[in-house]
């Protein structure tokens, strides 16, 4: 497939539909009360969400590659120019313990470039849907009026004097704390990668930096969403990500306003050197 905005507009509604349908299935599973042990609920949710996404994608897009967190990778996707990169349940711990900060990621890469991303946030009633191509980018926030915004904060908005660094809810590495100190900022804990990026776009954070443990399915859809809103997304050394790689590890991630990117990357380098 080609990757103009016009081409991607025809695919985006399908991606939104399957991401939101996955999220609604997960909400119903959790609300059923059938699985009271969090670990078991998490396993059931992961597998149920993956089964639905796999079926929907294989039926509608049989000629595309597919990389999912919950399915063993046979490498067949590497022969495809167009590959879906999905995380059926990003933030399994948060989901299984009744929290709101989990997400469903549906991303699409063409020739290694992330071009379409949907981050569904079922517990928040919001879905971020975006496309990025050589001729531009578009972002839509789906959802009804409520506590969370229905429009995204764009990357060209001013940075606050005291930036908020969104970080892992369960573990904040010492180097991230040093970055916060370097920038004169404060830490804001959150669950899934998709939800962390959403915190920035919903005006509840300003910087997100991460190292180790990430895979392409964690970052593909959130990266497209952030880029479409005009935010800077890169590795911790400032270089871009590539997708549908043989090794899907994608450990490093830095998301911030473009005007702050140089300072953030420099602060990360100093903090990680200590």
Counting helices, strands and paired strands, the structural category is alpha/beta
Q: Secondary-structure element order, as H and E? A: HHEEHEEEEEHEHEHEEH
Mean pLDDT level: 95
Kindly estimate the percentage of residues that lie in beta strands according to DSSP: 15-25%
Unreliable segments of 5+ consecutive residues = none
Helical content stands at 25-40%
Distance between the termini: 46 Å
Strand segment count: 11
User: Which quaternary structure do these chains form?
Assistant: single chain
Q: Can you tell me the overall shape?
A: globular
Please tell me how large the radius of gyration is. Answer: 18 Å
Write the layout of secondary structure elements.
Layout: H1 5-31, H2 38-60, E1 65-68, E2 82-90, H3 92-96, E3 103-110, E4 113-121, E5 126-133, E6 136-142, E7 164-168, H4 174-183, E8 186-190, H5 193-201, E9 207-210, H6 216-228, E10 232-234, E11 253-256, H7 261-273
Parallel strand pairs: 1-2, 7-8, 7-9
Antiparallel strand pairs: 2-3, 3-4, 4-5, 5-6, 9-11, 10-11
